[in-house]
Amino acid sequence: MIAAAAWVTVAHADVKEDPCACSPAKPGFFRRGNLTGDWNGERDKLKDAGVVPQLVYAGEVFAAPGLHDTLREAGLLAVQLDLELEKLAHEGLGQVHLSAFGIHGHGLSAELDDIYGVSGNVAPRDLRLFEAWVEQPISRLTLRAGLLSADQEFILAKHSTALLNATFGIISQLSYNLLGPVYPVATPGVSARLELEGFTARAAIYDGDQHNDHGVPTSLGPSRLVIGELALYDLVQVGVWHHSERGNGFYAILDHQLERYLAGFVRYGTSPNEFVSQYIDAGIRIGPGPFRAHDFIGLGVAFAKTADRALGEQTVYEATYQAQFGWLTIQPDVQVLLEHTRTAEIFATRATVVF
Q1: What CATH number does the domain containing 342 carry?
Q2: How far apart are CA 321 and CA 242, in angstroms?
Q3: Distance separating alpha carbons of residues 148 and 132, to the nearest angstrom
Q4: Nearest to residue 245, comparing CAs of 204, 209, 271, 203?
Q5: Radius of gyration (Cα) for the chain, nearest Å?
Q6: What is the longest distance spanned by two Cα atoms in the chain?
C-alpha cells in the first residue's frame, strides 16, 4: 500500500471550485463574490500577481425540539491564502496554500450521540491552523506535501456538497473510525495525483495521530494512514484506506450529472472489523437553477451500522435549500435522525458571508 502511494495520488487541486459548498469539509468553501468588493482593483491585481487571499464567515443556528438545549449557535471564520509560484517566482513552479480557522459555539451532536455530525462546520472552540502545503506538478503527476486533511482530498462526491450534515463531506465511517486527519485537524503528509485520459489515480500517506497545538504539529505519532483511490470518467471512484493501528476500509462512489439541473450520488463503505462497519449514503442535487440562477436544493440520506448495541444502526435524512445572493448565502435545513432509542428532528439555518 505504501509503495502504491509513491505513484498514485490525492489532492484537491483537481477538484473544481463548487459554488454550492458551504463547509470547509467540502471543496469549494471559498467562493467568488465578495462583500468587500475588488478593493479599488487591488484584489484583481493581487490575483494577477499570484496572490489570492480569502476570508469567509459561516454562522449557524440549530433547533431540536425535545433535547435538553433546544437551541444552539455556532460559527466558523476561515482565512485562506494561495500563492501561485509560477506567477510569483518562476514558470513551471506550483502553489503554496495556507488556511486557518476561528471556531466558536456548540452543535447538537454531543447530546444526540450521533456518528454523523449535524454540521460540517461545528468543532471545538479554537483558533487554529488547518492546512499548509506546497504543491508541484510534474507533467501529469502532481505532488503535494505539508499539513494535509483527507476530507479535502478523498471519498468526495461533488454533488453532495449542498448538504449541511458533516457525513456528506467525507463519510463519517472514516472520520469516526480513524478520527482524522479531517476538519479541523490536518496532519503531516504527502499526496500525489496522476491524471490520464479518462482516468485519475490518487494516493496519500498521513501521520495517523493528531499531536498538535492549535493545529501546529508538536510531534509525529507512531501510526500511519494510507489512502488510495481510482476515478474513472468522472463517474466512478473506488478506494481503500489502511491505518496501521485502527484497521482497513474500502469504498465505492457513483457521482454523476444526470440532467441539466439534476445530479445524484451514491457512496458505500465497509470496514468489517471496525466500530462503524457498514455505511451507505445517497442523494440528489438540483441546481444551479432552475428556480433561481445560483440556488441549490439538496436531498440526502445516510445509513450506518455500528458495533455498539446502545448506538445500534443510525439513519439520517436531510433536505436543504441554498439561496445565494452574491457574497451572502442563506441555507435553511431540516434533518431527521433515527437512532436506536429515539427519533430527533433538527432544524437549522446557516448564513455564509464571503468577504
Answers
A1: 2.40.160.180
A2: 36
A3: 7
A4: 209
A5: 19
A6: 60
* CA–CA distances in Å: residue 31 to residues 13, 175, 327: 15, 25, 8
CA 251 vs CA 24, 258, 268, 299, 324: distances in Å: 22, 22, 5, 21, 33
Contacts of 45 by beta carbon, 8 Å cutoff, 6+ apart: none
pLDDT over 70 (residue 7): no
d(CA 34, CA 17): 15
Instruction: Report phi then psi at 178, rounded to 5.
Output: -105, -15
Over the stretch 183-236, which tens digit does the pLDDT of each residue have? 999 999 999 999 999 999 999 999 999 899 999 999 998 999 999 999 998 899
- At which residue does the C-alpha cell 486527519 appear? 181
What is the distance between the alpha carbons of residues 108 and 265, in angstroms, rounded to a whole number? 26
Owner of C-alpha cell 471559498: 30
From CA 329, how far away is CA 58, in angstroms rounded?
Answer: 9
Q: Residue 20 is placed in which grid cell?
A: 454550492
Reduced to 3 states, what is the DSSP secondary structure of residue 47? helix
Chain segment 49-102, per-residue pLDDT in tens: 999 999 999 999 999 988 877 789 999 999 999 999 999 999 999 999 999 999
Q: Which amino acid makes up residue 255?
A: D
Q: DSSP label at 67?
A: S
The single-letter code of the amino acid at 24 is P
Whole-angstrom Cα distance, residue 284 to residue 300?
Answer: 7
State the Cα–Cα distance between residues 33 and 271, nearest whole angstrom: 41
Count of residues in the chain: 355
Q: Say what the pLDDT of residue 353 is.
A: 94
pLDDT surpassing 60 at residue 11: no
Q: State the Cα–Cα distance between residues 316 and 306, nearest whole angstrom.
A: 14
Single pTM value for the model: 0.89
Over range 314-318, report the average pLDDT. 97
Residue 97: what are its φ and ψ, rounded to 5°?
Answer: -130, 130
User: Domain of 170?
Assistant: 4-354
Residue 151 near residue 169, CB atoms below 8 Å: yes
* Number of domains within the chain: 1
Alpha-carbon gap, residue 265 to 281, rounded angstroms: 8
- State the DSSP code for 7: T
